[in-house]
Please model this.
Amino acid sequence: MRRLIPLTMLLGGCGFIDAGADPLIEAHRGGAGYWPQNSRTAMLGSIDAGYDGLEFDLVLTSDGVPVLSHDPWLHEDLCTTTAGDALGERIFIQDLELATLQADYLCGGVQDPESLDAEIVAEPVMTFDELLEAMVDAPEMLFHIDVKYEPDETPGPDVFAEEIMSRFVAADLPNPWFVSANLAELVLAFEGWGADNGVDVPSLVTWPRFTPDTSDVMVAVGNELGASTGLVDMVSVADAAGADGVSVPYQVIDRQLAALARSQGLFVAIWTVNDQAMLQALQGWPIDAVVTDYPELAR
Amino acid sequence: MIAALTLALALAAPSADAAKLRFQRVDFISEVPGTFVNYDIPMAAMNPVTAGLRWVEQIQVVVDLPVDGLSTGVSLGAQSLFYERPLHEAAGLSWGLGLQTDLLLPKGALADVSWRWKRIRLGLGGCVTSGASWANPNWSAWQLLPTVGVGVGRSYAPTVE
Model:
């Protein structure tokens, strides 16, 4: 056994071994398996639980306030009017001022069909500022800001970068952090904001890009074939976006490409893994973070 | 290492006896690129669709080239050039060295010992494979992997003339 140790070190030093990286476990949308996704209850619950990281999504109101929501609109299945009525039609958050959004609507008071065991708590949408205040109690927790820019449904990339980064920098938190984005132009906007303001913005680009108009299966298969034939990979995608890493769904992750990406200094995050066996298997992979609705399964 | 192997194959080719260009076999479990057995099978129960897709990607059609012992394999995920010599003819054993490419971009190398029985070829060996691709021609990260191959076909064994 002792003879193997120098050999292992030698091979590892030459990049021959893609040793497991003991990835951080992030609570997806604040731990959507336990609490309403992106809710105040979820964020505070994850902070209390002391998970490695907190992943959440931000969109902007019409008065430019970042609030926690996965979609650019109020979730029809999870949100109601304050009176408890169904929303009826799609309501875009960029069309509402913060005061109206918080006074007229509640989210989380309806059972999430994707997380049947999650607690049901009706609350006004949480703002990014409220979350930053809460994070003071968790200075070591990884802060994973996921931004969803959709042309025609959200403000532009530069507005996102300004409103989110100015608040985050002003909060002066010691936490490790990064921003992930679904489009290269959004990553470039955050990196550009950082360059203009003397802030190193750690950024991840999501790959591949799933859109509501395209079959997820077709996107995944197309991506897989592109990666298999070597025409596209994580490194080239990150380079094109100017990102510091990639955020990849577990369905398309390739261990060899992950090892290559990490060998070139990129951060590799995998989402959204809710299977306990897979969570445990990924502990031995050359990746940096795993996003899950159920962080307790990885403990 | 890849350059040395390419050179060795190039030198071996002119000196070898003439052979036929012919279909040899289909590898349903391929030694090239070697990642399916090592990385995807262990995850198959948890991620069956991806594992299934990657199984299809690695199915390799092997064709003998008109140089004795030299063959080429083509799959969606890799292409290879392989040079094979008899190790113990009576027992159906051979040894071989191969070059692995990704759309003809050199990506890795492998060595194996194979055993043929009727229409079946079983290979055991090892490969060094990089993540290099046309999208990212970078050979900085390598994996050293054991390989297993299972092929079915006419599977001509190399012979000593």
